Amino acid sequence: MTIPYAHAFWSLGDGSGEISQAELSDAGELMVRTCYSAISRGSETLVFNGQVPPSEYARMRAPFQSGDFPGPVKYGYSNVGVVEQGAHDWHGRHVYCLYPHQTHYRIAASDVVRLPEDVPPQRAVLGANMETALNAMWDAAPAAGDRISVVGAGVVGALVAWLCAKLPGAQVQLIDIDERKRFLGSALGVEFVTPADAADERDLVIHASASDAGLQTALAIAGFEASVVELSWYGSREVNLPLGEAFHARRLTLRSSQVGSVSPSHRARWNHKRRLSLALSLLNDECLDVLISGESHFRDLPQTLARLSRSDDDTLCERIRYD
Known about the structure:
Low-confidence stretches: none
Distance between the termini: 18 Å
Shape: globular
Order of helices and strands: EEEHEEEEEEHHEHEHEEHEEHEHE
Structural class: alpha/beta
């Protein structure tokens, strides 16, 4: 079977996008047909709206990105497909790849990860989110018995809270201003609270709301000499951060976590592919299906990303199907 071209989604960097024909190169021994991809609301809506600051153009490039910021750019990094051409031991296997939204692509076998047998392709689109959450865990280093708060109940924040709750004796609160997300508490086995009811004197606070108010809450509830780990990325937007008041007296530590680099605690022994493989294996719990709260078709991606860019949209992970 010969497939001379595919179709791909391009963000134009001005709050719009388009689907156009994409030629397939001869490089790479595997031909993959995309089954599902997922939209990362944080970074992809910033790209869609042209909000990547010029200073970050190089660092924000996705592994298989085409085009340059602010756009047009073919951007995305959560693709689940099935191998239709390749060596016998690959044929028919579902794979995960950090590839943009495209119907088919040719890729080297070294650039994909086979899905674990107990992780369905429909859920595997959470792979990039889980990898971010895993790296955050390595950066934050939570311990058994810790009082942990996660501010921001988006997909990454919810995954971090779920991972933290697996620590023996850990007391985990997932904090968000949106009462519509309260169902996540029971679904993921953590306590959901709004900022008004958040406990203070926390041993560790992880912030993932991408808002000034969320980060201010994180600092306010951190205990003496506690750490606040910042997962949010704000693009070109400035953040109003109160570093007066008791910030110094309480000797708080504010540090960033970003998935582009393997956490220093594991960097000597882990590479990106090993970390991604572990992240995919951690998706073997059906309770995580609750995080995929929207689904739309590839052909509707321009309209879907415009919708997800609105602050009133309550979708967690939007899964894109290609059937």
